[in-house]
Write a structure and sequence with these properties.
The protein is 18% helix and 21% strand. The protein has 2 helices and 4 strands; from the N terminus they run E-H-E-E-H-E. The longest helix has 5 residues.
Length: 56
């Protein structure tokens, strides 16, 4: 199951830098995960300082 980034995102970019498949891009208000490319590894959730990424 792919991860999704909540509105708690502070747009620090830590998740995008850590993503091994590069499926996280900066959106207008927060970073966004491309669910079709996400491999559900959880690296983004482990890296995020505010816990914004979670399994969808």
């Amino acid at each position: 199951m792919a991860f999704k980034i909540s509105d708690e995102c502070i747009k620090c970019g830590a998740c995008a830098d850590a993503c091994p498949v590069g499926c996280i891009k900066e959106g207008d208000d927060k970073y966004e995960i491309n669910a079709d490319e996400c491999v559900s590894c959880g690296t983004c959730a482990d890296t995020c300082p505010v816990g914004a990424p979670a399994e969808a």
